[in-house]
Design a protein that fits this description.
It is built from nine helices and eight strands. With about 270 residues, the protein is α+β, with helices and mostly antiparallel strands. It folds into two domains: about 100 residues, Trna Endonuclease, Chain: A, domain 1 (3-Layer(aba) Sandwich); about 120 residues. A four-stranded mixed sheet has the order 1-2-3-4. Strands 5-6-7-8 form a four-stranded antiparallel sheet. Helix 1 runs parallel beside helix 4 and helix 6 runs parallel beside helix 7.
């Protein structure tokens, strides 16, 4: 009920949200050409939430992927649901439980995502320009629903700790990789000389078109890194959160100029 209320509130009165909707009630599976296994699955499976327009036409499904979605049996089911959405060209937004957490502004990533969807829908409805690009990351640049602001807030928090002498550096290094099925971002910051706090964030099956998953991951990994750094500081340097300089260099994540600037070594002549 809490998730339903959050989604409904974020979408406002522009859309209608329903919970636990059978997949077969969203897709016209009869005579669609899908195989027997997928047909049977569609009859039994449900979407967590389905978003409808004012005419009760389904326009998007939303799934919350909790810890149970890492189980092999659930992964198989998720993949089948993903494939059905792909076949019927139906947007599917998969949300992570961590995205429900609110930052200092009191706004969660989920609220930002859904707010950007509302804005996107309004712009599409009124824009006749062919091939226009929707920039959701800067649309709310000045308010709490801005992805850009959330990333900048995390960067500023790390820099403030560096300037107060609590961190060795405020330079954040990150990398993003992936394919059409999943994306992964990793980030590091040097908290003490030669020691780093790191984090990673993943997105499975990105099935919506109004948000670039690479740009979203860039925001998410900065937020998650700041949370890890904050935890590290609060717990007096939690060693379980750290990785060594050697580990970072072996992963190829630090640029040679950073190592030289910090008077470490160049990758060509490692001093381990």
């Amino acid at each position: 009920m809490e998730c339903l209320n959050l989604i409904s509130k974020s979408l406002g009165d522009v859309f209608i949200v329903a919970g636990k909707v059978r997949v077969a009630d969203v897709f016209e599976i009869q005579g669609s050409g899908i195989d027997v296994e997928m047909y049977s699955y569609a009859l039994k499976a449900h979407f967590d939430f389905v978003v409808y327009d004012k005419l009760y036409v389904p326009i998007m499904a939303i799934e919350f992927d909790g810890p149970s979605h890492k189980k092999e049996s659930q992964v198989v089911n998720d993949d089948m649901k993903n494939e059905l959405c792909r076949k019927f060209n139906f947007p599917l937004l998969r949300l992570n439980d961590n995205w429900l957490s609110k930052d200092d502004s009191g706004v969660s990533i989920v609220e930002c995502l859904l707010s950007s969807f509302v804005d996107y829908s309004k712009i599409v409805e009124t824009n006749d320009e062919v091939g226009f690009v929707y920039d959701c990351f800067n649309l709310h640049a000045g308010d709490d629903l801005s992805f850009y602001r959330k990333k900048r807030s995390a960067q500023k928090a790390i820099k403030d700790k560096f300037e107060s002498g609590k961190l060795h550096s405020h330079d954040v290094f990150y990398s993003i990789s992936g394919d059409q099925k999943s994306y992964r971002a990793e980030a590091w910051v040097e908290v003490e000389r030669g020691r780093f706090v790191s984090t990673s964030v993943s997105i499975r099956h990105w099935g919506v078109h109004w948000i670039n998953p690479i740009e979203l991951l860039e925001v998410l990994v900065h937020i998650q890194l700041w949370r890890k750094v904050e935890h590290w500081l609060r717990n007096g340097g939690d060693l379980s959160l750290e990785i060594s300089l050697r580990q970072v260099v072996l992963r190829g994540r630090l640029k040679p100029e950073y190592l030289e600037r910090q008077n470490f070594f160049t990758p060509a002549t490692p001093a381990f």
